[in-house]
Amino acid sequence: MAIFLNENSKVIVQGMTGAEGTKHTKRMLASGTNIVGGVNPRKAGEKVDFDGTVLPVFGTVKEAMEATGANVTVIFVPPAFSKAAVVEAIDAEIELAVVITEGIPVHDTAYFWAHAVATGNKTRIIGPNCPGIISPGKSNAGIIPANIAGSGKIGLVSKSGTLTYQMMHELRDFGFSTAIGIGGDPIIGTTHIDALEAFEADEDTVAIVMIGEIGGDAEERAAAYIKENVTKPVVGYVAGFTAPEGKTMGHAGAIVSGSAGTAQAKKEALEAAGVKVGKTPSETAALMREIMNAL
């Protein structure tokens, strides 16, 4: 099985005709994703040929859903227009919206996140500023390279795109049920806890890798959730062990002050919940390899 995305997912791409949308639509199609159309109000009614696969362009998400039965949208819309694009997807009640765009203002993300909640949480948002989600061999919604690893029984949830790729490559001999890059912005749609809950319920996921970053308390909250609710083995990695105190670090805008938000504090919280934490991505992969070999 897989979580949130599977072989039955029908995907549309908002911003499909833009440079990034075009490039990654080709890559998603090549990896076997069932893309059924795109959305661009200025090009509605046109058709686009992607190396022999001809896809229609619709004026709105709702029109695309009605015509194709789409239940997933991948959003490659520039930051200034992303709030409107995500709100449109929420209003159309699409099941999953994967927001790839980087640089969306935090107040815009707060707005569409609150809008999703206020309208009944009918649309799951992944991102923004994320690489997306892949269920290898089934579907790929976003920019994660499809040839890193095949299908398997490890679930992966990560704040970092590049560390998602590295962990998939390191554990490619075991494979993944689903790998999710949730993004590192201050406000995101799907959290570590959301993914952990889904992996715990997925009968074909037997172990979980969780990758976090310095700053905030998301990893500490995830540790508390794991302690109370997760029965499957979890290994973790927290990026930023060598980060200088008191500096804003990286795309997460992670500010470390005293012991709050440090990699060490997060590591200790996770270990207290029974999670084995590696000091490097490779050490974390080795910990998971030990677990998988013992199962």
From TrEMBL:
GO terms for molecular function: nucleotide binding; succinate-CoA ligase (ADP-forming) activity; succinate-CoA ligase (GDP-forming) activity. The active site is at H251. Gene3D superfamilies: NAD(P)-binding Rossmann-like Domain (3.40.50.720), Succinyl-CoA synthetase domains (3.40.50.261). Belongs to the succinate/malate CoA ligase alpha subunit family. Keywords: Ligase, Nucleotide-binding, Tricarboxylic acid cycle. One of its GO terms (cellular component) is succinate-CoA ligase complex (ADP-forming). Its EC number is 6.2.1.5. CoA binds at T17, G18, A19, E20, K43, I100, T101, E102. Residues 4-104 form the CoA-binding domain. The keyword rRNA processing does not apply. Substrate binds at Y165. The gene is sucD. Pathway: Carbohydrate metabolism; tricarboxylic acid cycle; succinate from succinyl-CoA (ligase route): step 1/1. This is Succinate--CoA ligase [ADP-forming] subunit alpha. One of its GO terms (biological process) is tricarboxylic acid cycle. It catalyses: succinate + ATP + CoA = succinyl-CoA + ADP + phosphate; GTP + succinate + CoA = succinyl-CoA + GDP + phosphate. Heterotetramer of two alpha and two beta subunits. The keyword Ligase applies. It holds the Pfam family Ligase_CoA.
